[in-house]
């Protein structure tokens, strides 16, 4: 998941590199978040004009993800679905990122089959943890709520340090929010751009397995009522 951090004034001699589609200057925070709203991987400093997918592809994490060299857990069978065989662990992302074997993105479009709508809902529900983590981060430090009037290198250091402090507080603070904080915080603005999706057969197969599973053994009672 990636979010933009506004810069003011624009970095000297940067041309249009930091100029984004919102017509402001920004750098990008790319992050992997766990179920406890903690940042497990961050990449800071991507140009505001670069797409989320491009920033992921250029990052060390993204390159390892594509090469299949990340130290991920072994494939496991889904609960109650042993007949489907072992499936890979996957990160969840929005439509701005490419579909990979270990990176799930939603199906595009509105007029899609019911099973695909359910998959998109379940993916979005999981992805809200990431949105909430960014929201908690921005609510804890005011610098995320206005343009940073510092050099790019200083801005990058500030972002890294606040992410470390955020994790520390999540682990140690007795007042840390452990429930879903969606209604309490405002997420940082996403980049809002859709990535070209050139997916391999294995990535498509994995998504199809999850899609079928969420409408069968892995269904939850309320999911049909959430479909628009």
Automatic annotation (TrEMBL):
Query: Where is this chain primarily localised?
Result: nucleus
Amino-acid biosynthesis: present as a keyword of the record?
no
Identify the GO cellular component terms for this protein: nucleus
**What compartments host this protein?**
Nucleus
Identify the cofactor(s): a divalent metal cation
Sorted alphabetically, the keyword list is: Hydrolase, Metal-binding, Nuclease, Nucleus
- What is the recorded name of this protein? Zgc:194221
User: Which GO molecular function annotations are given, in alphabetical order?
Assistant: hydrolase activity; metal ion binding; nuclease activity
Please name the source species: Gouania willdenowi (Blunt-snouted clingfish)
- Similarity comment text for this entry: Belongs to the HARBI1 family.
Q: Which residues form the DDE Tnp4 domain?
A: 13-167
One matching Pfam family, short form?
A: DDE_Tnp_4
């Amino acid at each position: 998941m990636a979010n933009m951090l506004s810069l003011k004034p624009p970095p000297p001699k940067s041309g249009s590199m930091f100029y984004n589609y919102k017509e402001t200057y920004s750098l990008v925070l790319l992050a992997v978040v766990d179920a406890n709203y903690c940042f497990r991987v961050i990449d800071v400093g991507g140009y505001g004009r670069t797409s989320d997918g491009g920033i992921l592809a250029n990052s060390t994490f993204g390159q390892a993800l594509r090469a299949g060299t990340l130290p991920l857990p072994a494939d496991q069978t889904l609960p109650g679905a042993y007949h489907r065989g072992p499936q890979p662990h996957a990160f969840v992302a929005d439509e701005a990122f490419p579909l990979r074997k270990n990176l799930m993105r939603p199906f595009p479009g509105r007029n899609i089959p019911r099973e695909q709508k359910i998959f998109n809902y379940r993916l979005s529900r999981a992805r809200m943890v990431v949105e909430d983590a960014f929201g908690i981060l921005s609510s804890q430090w005011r610098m995320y709520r206005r343009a940073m009037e510092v050099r790019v290198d200083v801005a990058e250091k500030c972002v890294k340090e606040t992410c470390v402090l955020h994790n520390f507080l999540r682990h140690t603070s007795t007042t840390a929010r452990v429930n879903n904080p969606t209604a309490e915080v405002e997420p940082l603005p996403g980049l809002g751009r859709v990535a070209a999706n050139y997916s391999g057969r294995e990535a498509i197969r994995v998504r199809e397995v999850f899609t079928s599973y969420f409408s069968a053994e892995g269904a939850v009672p309320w999911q049909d009522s959430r479909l628009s």
